[in-house]
Request: fold
Amino acid sequence: MAWKPISGLAPSAREELTRRILRGEVPSYVDERGERRVWMAGDLPPFWALDLVARVRQEVADLRRSLEASGRSARPTRARRAA
Reply:
């Protein structure tokens, strides 16, 4: 983990990160060159992975509900597993 500039992130990621900084969810500071930096692990802010996992879980739950509502099973059948 280290303080890294947000300028290297994709524009959409930079926008989301800026929103979170403004809400006080992500610590940041402006360095001596005027570049905003945040505390990050690797190339992603620490909350990114948690958000991704939550989003994927929600999409899976939505898909399961949709399949069950249409009378199909969200679980693979033996035929699909064997294929």
In short: The chain is about 50% helix and 15% strand. The CA atoms of residues 22 and 28 lie 10 Å apart. The mean pLDDT is 77.
